[in-house]
Design a protein that fits this description.
This protein is of the alpha+beta class. The protein has a single domain, classed as GTP Cyclohydrolase I, domain 2, CATH 3.30.1130.10. It is built from four helices and four strands; from the N terminus they run βαβαααββ. Strands 1-2-3-4 form a four-stranded antiparallel sheet. The relative contact order is 0.21.
Length: 125
C-alpha cells in the first residue's frame, strides 16, 4: 500500500551576486541575492527504489536558478521569483508545485532592513 503525502525537496539559501532593482545604481553595482526553492512532487517511487531517474535533478534546478538570477536583469524580485517558478514547472515534468523565495539583502530603504523577500508559488494545473 502506497501513501503519498506532500513529498518535498528544498534547496535553501542559494546565494548569487546579481544586478536587479529599480534604481539605476542597482543595475550597475549589483547586490547579493538569496534564493530558496521548494519543489513538491511525488518521490515515493524514487525513494523506494533509490532511483535517481525517478526524481528531480536538483543540480539542474540550481543551474536554472543561477541562470535566471545572473543572465537577466529585472526591476523586481517579484518578477525573478515568478519567472523561476514557471521556468521550473515548464522544464521539470515531475514537479507539481514550486515555491520560490528571493531575498535581496540590505534593500535600498530609508532605514535598517536585513532583506526584502518575494515569495511565489506556482502549481501545475
Amino acid at each position: 500500500m502506497t501513501h503519498y503525502s506532500h513529498s518535498c525537496v528544498r534547496l535553501v539559501n542559494m546565494v548569487f551576486y546579481a544586478h536587479h532593482g529599480v534604481l539605476k545604481e542597482e543595475h550597475t553595482v549589483g547586490a547579493k541575492y538569496e534564493v530558496d526553492a521548494e519543489l513538491r512532487f511525488n518521490f515515493t517511487d524514487a525513494a523506494q527504489h533509490d532511483d535517481i531517474t525517478k526524481t528531480v535533478d536538483y543540480g539542474a534546478v540550481y543551474k536554472e536558478i543561477k541562470k535566471a538570477l545572473t543572465m537577466k536583469k529585472y526591476f523586481l524580485i517579484e518578477a525573478v521569483a515568478y519567472e523561476i517558478a514557471h521556468d521550473l514547472l515548464r522544464d521539470f515534468a515531475l514537479l507539481e508545485q514550486v515555491t520560490i523565495k528571493v531575498r535581496k539583502r540590505n534593500p535600498p530603504v530609508d532605514g535598517i532592513c536585513d532583506y526584502a523577500e518575494a515569495d511565489y508559488t506556482a502549481i501545475r494545473r
